[in-house]
Design goal:
Strand order of the largest sheet: 3-2-1-4-9-6-10
Distance between the termini: 37 Å
Number of strands: 12
Radius of gyration: 21 Å
Structural class: alpha/beta
Order of helices and strands: EHEHEHEEHEEEHEHEEHHHHHE
Shape: globular
Length: about 350
């Protein structure tokens, strides 16, 4: 039995020459010592690579690589990191986020309590410019609702840094969709749930500070433009692939069917408002809505906001009672007060 398992921490990075130092510093200050940190640079144009070299020289457990071929993006960098990793367990960390000092020690101890699980899921705190006294936690980790439904409701149950993955049970070649420029984490977690992974959520109430997600106006997040036309156009085939995978792989009960249809409708509205009607039509074809043709007519004319469109909306809302399909779920949360 491995008493001190090796933990692989995977960090993709692009133009984060200062922030990545904080992420790497949080690895170096861990109370648990048996870890490796694999950082993959996505073609940075600033001094990020020099920062990485500086930290790799400090500690041989920090291993740095450059992305040497296409496609560009965090998905491919994370997949490179997984391929290079040797850990018994693996976790992902964004280049602007931070680990608590006891994060790895705490997680490793939990693996002895939860043996033979594919993943253990831990909470993540949200901070601005300092990890001292964070005010929010990334959502409520445990709710009565099914996690797959929560992902389709965009009620994201955990952050990318939340899971600790057991690599004795999982394939190193089956992680992020390299075609995805956005929603990579959503897609990966949905597909892992569809695969039927055995996982446990480690509930610590509202005070967990295991990992820290940076949400600060003082720096620009890489994902701030994920509602742009380019990102939406790129995302559509990935979403279609994921929805088809779900429909073909799991039993679709009523509540999950509602969540998927709602997700399709809300995505179509975004696409149509961004003049991506063909993409909207493609993803809409996966719905199995009642009054499907009427719904499409409503969606197709949504941007015009005419009396005709509002009349259809009235019918869908008031007469056919289908308003819940284009209203956000009431349970949708991104952060929860600590």
């Amino acid at each position: 039995m491995v008493t001190d398992p090796l933990i692989s921490i995977i960090i993709p990075v692009y133009n984060r020459q200062e922030l990545v130092k904080e992420a790497l510093g949080s690895c170096l200050w861990q109370t648990y010592q048996n870890w490796e940190c694999i950082v993959v640079d996505d073609g940075s144009t600033d001094n990020t690579w020099q920062s990485l070299e500086e930290y790799a020289a400090k500690d041989k457990r920090i291993k740095i690589f450059k992305r040497l071929r296409e496609p560009k993006g965090a998905s491919y960098c994370r997949n490179i990191g997984v391929e290079k990793s040797k850990g018994d367990f693996l976790m992902f960390l964004d280049s602007d986020d931070i680990l608590s000092q006891d994060c790895l020690n705490y997680r490793v101890n939990k693996t002895f309590e939860y043996k033979n699980y594919d993943a253990l899921i831990f909470p993540t705190a949200i901070f601005s410019d300092s990890i001292k006294n964070p005010k929010y936690q990334w959502n409520k980790l445990i709710k009565e609702e099914d996690d797959l439904i929560r992902f389709f409701n965009m009620d994201m149950p955990w952050h990318t840094s939340g899971p600790l993955w057991n690599m004795k049970n999982l394939n190193r070649n089956d992680w992020f969709n390299e075609k995805a420029q956005s929603f990579q984490d959503w897609e990966m977690h949905v597909n892992k749930l569809v695969q039927g992974i055995k996982y446990a959520k480690i509930d610590e109430g509202q005070i967990s500070k295991n990992t820290f997600y940076r949400c600060s106006p003082s720096h620009i997040s890489i994902g701030t433009d994920y509602y742009s036309e380019t990102k939406l156009k790129n995302r559509t085939p990935v979403l279609i692939e994921t929805i088809l995978n779900v429909r073909n792989s799991v039993q679709i009960h009523k509540n999950l069917n509602v969540a998927i249809n709602r997700f399709i409708v809300r995505t179509c509205i975004l696409l149509i408002k961004t003049n991506l009607k063909e993409e909207a039509k493609s993803i809409y074809s996966l719905s199995n809505l009642k009054y499907k043709k009427l719904f499409w007519l409503y969606l197709k004319t949504k941007k015009q906001n005419t009396l005709f469109n509002r009349s259809i909306e009235f019918c869908l809302y008031r007469i056919f009672k289908l308003g819940y399909l284009f209203d956000p779920p009431k349970t949708t949360l991104v952060k929860t007060k600590i």
